[in-house]
Amino acid sequence: MFIARHKASNRRGFTLLEVMLAVAILGMMSLAIFRFVQANLTALSLSSETVAADAQYDGLRDLLTAHWQSLSPTRAAMIGEVFKLSDRERDEIKWNCGAGPGMLTRYAPTDFTVTLRLEPEKKGDHLDLGLSRKPQKASDLGEVNESWVPLIKNVTSLQISYFDSNTNTWLPKWPGGGRLPWLVKIEVGRPDSAVPWETVIPLRRTPY
Length: 208
Known about the structure:
- By secondary structure, the protein is an alpha+beta fold.
- The protein contains two helices and eleven strands; from the N terminus they run ααβββββββββββ.
- Helices cover 27% and strands 31% of the residues.
- Strand 5 and strand 6 form a beta hairpin.
- It is elongated, with a radius of gyration of 32 Å.
């Protein structure tokens, strides 16, 4: 009686070394994919934060442009002062107005003196850029105290210059005298940029 022998199969299993190499390669690929995705998510997050911050500054420019172009020179009595503290520019600009964009309200019982300036945060060491609103006199609603409206949080400096059409030069301060400057240049130091944000606001409407 003959017993047929089965031919030995040429197939064989993976060795331990091959399995370890495959796992190592998969691990390296997974790590590379993870870092790629993480880098893209970080870039998207930073981009979103930058866009949001830029929108705040654009809103400030639009607010001041619309309001300052509506001011009456004699009633506004605009005054610009130069201040500096700890080597940081902390200029201030002050003007008078009633209800409207400058007050950030439609219902102001009396004329107010509004000041664009920096104010330290109540909790923390950061400076906020905003509007200080103080009534010029008591109203029928009773005595109203000075109020503070923050516009942009965490800025490092505020420098304001004024273009005088009579002398054709930029001035570091504005004396008032019933006149408005033709242009106001505002530079705001940003903690997220080595270059300060800058805008030039015309106080007279241009045809374009």
